[in-house]
Amino acid sequence: MAEVDIEGGTNMNLDAEKTESKDQAAPSRTAGEAGWHVSRYNISAPIPDTNLTAIANLFKGNCAKYTPIELYLLSVLEELDEHHPIIERFAKRGIIANFDERAALECMGRGACGRAPMVGLTICPTIGCNFDCPYCFQDHGRGHMTKEVQDDVIALTERMLSTSSAKKLHVTWFGGEPLLVPNIIESLSERLIALAEEHGASYQASIITNGYLLTQDIADMLHHYKVESAQITVDGLDPTHNATRYLRGGGPTFDRIIANLRDLSLPFRVNIRHNVHEDNRDEVEKLEAFINQLASESGNKLHYYPAPVSDSSTAEERGRQVGLLCSNEESDVSIRQESKRFSQGRGHYCGAHTLWAIGIDDAGNLHKCWEAVDKPDLSFGTAHDWDPADPINSASNADNLTKFLNTACPVPDEECRECVWLPTCVGGCPYRRLFEARKCIPFKDNPEGYVLALQERIGENEEGQNEGDA
């Protein structure tokens, strides 16, 4: 035992005993006095045929069941002793908090939008397409990316990696239909991968394609150039799909797409997007079962997800808008998809909110949203001229840059900032907020349905983690 001054040690022990006695005698604070309050981001629903209630906390990404006794304790939270054992349990699930959640959400949002862990490029080697889908937001035209524009893309990527010091480069191949020009994907990929290596950055890629032109050689080429996932749209079973996803000039596409998914050995994950509208909404479960069976038979990694079709001004101009879902139908489809993402906690900010994610069209014009890549008037600059080290002065139209960046952190809309759904939607799609009517999430008016769908899909979720991910 180390030597100590006996007198000093004695006094120290007496002081400690006095302090302990004083602490024990001090009256305990209530939870309210200690700063605890019910979260502003809770939504709840009674679970049918039980006496339990499901509460989802949108800030933390947690959904759990609560007994009547627990609900009572929650209702008198601020009167409870701050050391009541239920406090820790409620706090762990996020349904109570001792901080300003909205301020925290906005702070985290500023961090997410401001930092540069990744440079994200959406590259359109062509805006042309071999399909003529009536709901498409693009007005297809022009040719393909020239060698000069490709050189500009590489130079821009060099500037973005140098300025950001990002350690990851992610490329999404988009269009139009990118597989119309696989040679451009191949040549650009080789140069982009080499550039990432020079900067000590990892490289990943994905592709959005209609799947019609996919061959084994192309699939192998994409895999070689680090494409890890593809999105292919299938809009229903044979006749339903062919009614909306037909070739330019006419002609069915379903059989060939399905044959590609079944017969090719696809070395990457394929997300099968089902654009759900009035004419195919009854096929959601049938198509999901069909895709699951196709995945089982082929051995390919096929994953189904439904997405409600949004209004399209381009389709209106063509006079061929498909029947949109009513609000309740859109809500049902969206709840189904959103419940899979819920347990990640808090919404995901769009790439349009950050300086380090841009879209590049076939002419080298830069955009903050891929829904604008066929609209030159919404471009903020060119791959040849824009410099992220001087983003405003090097932009040809700085307003087209800043108005996207300023749609978040905080959301410039007091109604949105007060909304319980803010952690989930974080203000919604920047493009729609800027150029269309503000579009709230479809399930906003059906909170009970949303909570019950979460409870059914992910069950008890103590840690804000999906049970399947635990």
From TrEMBL:
The keyword DNA-binding does not apply. Its cofactor is [4Fe-4S] cluster. GO terms for molecular function: 4 iron, 4 sulfur cluster binding; catalytic activity; metal ion binding. CDD domains: Radical_SAM (cd01335). InterPro entries: 4Fe4S-binding_SPASM_dom, Aldolase_TIM, rSAM, rSAM_sf. It holds the Pfam family Radical_SAM. The keyword Protein biosynthesis does not apply. Residues 1-32 are annotated as: Disordered. Residues 115-346 form the Radical SAM core domain. It comes from the Bacteria. Keywords: 4Fe-4S, Iron, Iron-sulfur, Metal-binding, S-adenosyl-L-methionine. This is Radical SAM core domain-containing protein. It comes from Denitrobacterium detoxificans.
